[in-house]
Structures are given as structure tokens and as C-alpha cells.
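Hi L.,

As promised, LysE family transporter:
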Amino acid sequence: MQEASALLSLAAVFAVALVSPGPDVALVVRTALHQGQRAGLLSALGLACGILLHGTLVLSGVALLLSRTEWLFELVQVGGALYLGWLGIGAVRAWWRGSAGPRRLDGELTPSLFGPWLRGVLTNLGNPKALVFFLALLSSLVPADMSLPGKVACAALLFGLSLFWFSLLGLTLSRPLMRQRLLQVAPIIDFVCGLVFLLVAASIVGRLLL
């Protein structure tokens, strides 16, 4: 009963956090808009895989060890800030060019069919704020003595909710009529998404310098 209650609380809190604007949402919006439904769904799957890995690291105790190893955690933060900054610059460049047609996104690391998936994984893992968030979320809502099946259920819940939300977002935005309308204001969307990436990257760097 205690574990079921913890899972319900986790689902409620995580669902609210999931729909909040941030780098993950910005990535799905840009990918679905510029590359279509398949790429949008692949990026959604990549984000969900990143969240699953974050959850697994926290539930297994590895994330706590990482956060207490100062130099290693700082290295992760620097890498994440650089990657998110790269995505942000690419989005702002797209806004500056003002091109609204489908194209390969700046910041895609590989031209392979699974490029959007990889970008989704790296965008989520590259945001060290996500690691801190999951540390706080799971340590406060998941009992320390939760059974292994319970922890597996927590990880599956995080993966399932994130995959559902990001896939729904990608499917909605890539519908032909919706996409056609959004492409008319694509430069503005690029600018807003780029700003989100850059602000998160700047906040990471700012925290490191303070």
C-alpha cells in the first residue's frame, strides 16, 4: 500500500513537471515542426530514454555518488551547457535566416535515421538540472526501503509518462494542417526554442561560476 501511494504521488508530481516548458519540450517542438512526425516521435523516444536513465541512476544510488564527486559533476555540467548552448545557437541561427522549410536541424550529431533519437537522449542527459530534479523528486517521494519491483515500477512510470507526453506533443504538432500553420511562424518558434536552450545553458554556467 505504501509503495502504491508513493507511485501515485510520483505520477502526479512528475506529470506537472513534465508539461512545463523547457529544453525537452523545445526539442520536440522544433523537431516535429521541421522534420515531421517520424523524427518528432524518435526525439520523444530519445527524451524518454534519457529520463529513464536519469531515474535509474537516482534509484540505484549512482546519481547521488556523482553529485557528491564535485569535479565529475562539474564536468557533466560543462558538457551539458556546451551541448544545450550549441542547440540554442543553431535555433537562433535558423530564426536569423528566416527559413521555414523542412531541413536538417542544427545540433543533430549524426545524419543517420536515428539522429533525432540521439539528440533527444543527449538533450535530456545534457541538462544537469534534470539530474538534480530527479534526485530531489525521487528522494522525497520514494521510500528508502522500497523493494526492487517497486523501484522498477518507478522507472517504468517515468519512462511511460514521458514517452506518452512527448509523443502526444510530437503527433499533434506534426499533423499536416497544424504543421502547415506553424511553419508560417517557424522563425519565431525557432527563436523562442533557441532562447530556452541558451537560458538553461547560461544558468548552468552561471551556477558554476558563482
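Residues 30-209 form one domain.

Thanks again for sending the construct details.

K.
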